[in-house]
Amino acid sequence: MMNSLVEKLRKNRDLSDEEFREIIDSGRYDDDLRTAADEVRRENYGDVVFLRGLIEFTNYCKNDCLYCGLRASNRTADRYRLSREEILDCCEEGYALGYRTFVLQGGEDPYYNDDRICEIVAAIRKRFPDCAITLSIGEKARESYQRYFDAGANRYLLRHETADDAHYARLHPDTMSAQNRKRCLWDLKAIGYQVGAGFMVGSPYQTTDTLIADLRFLQQLQPDMIGIGPFLRHHATPFRDQPNGSAELTLRLLSILRLMFPYVLLPATTALGTILPDGRERGLQAGANVVMPNLSPVAARKKYEIYENKICTGEESAQCRGCLEMRVKAAGYRIVTDRGDVRRA
Ligand code: SAM
């Protein structure tokens, strides 16, 4: 018999704060949560896993997020930028390997002003008309988001990081705010992007209450994708001595999110695979339905060091593709070549 709290979450797609607290803080529900989440993912997506080809095109960043290895104050980072041609080469290679979504991610790098981003997006759109183009390049003005959209971008990933203002302020410099981050997400949605939000699990000063605030914010936003992964420390940040986030709690939250948002695209993240050798497989079994292998040139991969010991930094794209295929199959699922649009009921 499945636990009644898990059944209630599955049926109502919601719980009271008190009930969420119980389920988040206790490992007692984990088996039932995982079973229910897998059933719900299969009802909505079968055994299908979507691929997103990640192109990390710059590790320059003007921001100074306290947790991130790319932060401007990290003078030891070896910075790089990919040219438009190099980005197109990554897409070319990805296309041949079956990728139909390209995610362009980077630090907030002023070199890539709106004109340059639009040129890159338009060139990808022209050469790969059947592919989805996702941007993940941080906080911008609404007008800029509109220009990228008009140039051909369809999706945007911007984790809200934490929905709690005070918590947000402890993770970021004064120049940044939870309010602006959320404003960006609402603007992106209003423009017509498919939007991805999300948060780190176990970021410093996170509490069960801030996690519940994250769930409540996601209920308002109703994003198409939710990216979560454990916080992992980086030696050249102020959080170098903070404990890493927990794989167990990340898996628990993946299942909770699947039950709350049956339709949502939920990646089994690289951070989860970094903290646990079979983390991505376990993520899929806990309700995730997306993996985002790296399409960046090998020389760039190690330099895009947002946290330490990141996996898949030594492999060519083709090796990543093959390895993932095997892992996904062994976990009981199947990679498909498809844009992988959200399936809202
Ligand atoms: N600059 C863009 C932005 O702000 O959305 C995209 C790049 S940013 C490096 C991508 C994500 O990496 C962030 O949203 C954050 O959640 C995650 N991240 C950064 N540092 C991390 C760390 N130390 N551990 C785990 N995740 C981290």
- For the record, give the distance between the C-alpha atoms at the N and C termini, rounded to a whole number: 28 Å
| Strand order in the sheet with the most strands | 2-3-4-5-6-7
Radius of gyration: 19 Å
Q: Determine the strand fraction and express it as a percent band.
A: 5-15%
Low-confidence stretches: none
Series of secondary-structure elements, N-terminal to C-terminal: HHHEEHEHEHEHHEHEHHHEHHE
Number of helix segments? 14
Largest sheet: 6 strands, parallel
What is the overall shape?
globular
pLDDT averaged over residues: 97
Q: Structural class, please?
A: alpha/beta
The total count of strands amounts to 9
What's this entry about, in short?
With 345 residues, the chain is of the alpha/beta class. It has helices spanning 4-12, 17-25, 30-45, 84-96, 114-127, 142-151, 165-171, 178-191, 208-221, 247-260, 270-275, 279-285, 298-301, 317-331; strands at residues 48-51, 53-58, 101-106, 132-136, 155-157, 194-201, 225-230, 290-291, 334-336.
List keywords for this structure.
about 10% strand, globular, alpha/beta, binds S-adenosylmethionine, 9 strands, six-stranded parallel β-sheet
Please tell me about this protein's structure:
It is a single chain. This protein has helices at 4-12, 17-25, 30-45, 84-96, 114-127, 142-151, 165-171, 178-191, 208-221, 247-260, 270-275, 279-285, 298-301, 317-331, and strands at residues 48-51, 53-58, 101-106, 132-136, 155-157, 194-201, 225-230, 290-291, 334-336. With 345 residues, it is an alpha/beta fold. Strands 2-3-4-5-6-7 form a 6-stranded parallel β-sheet. The radius of gyration is 19 Å and the shape is globular. Bound molecules: S-adenosylmethionine. The site of S-adenosylmethionine has 20 residues, from loops.
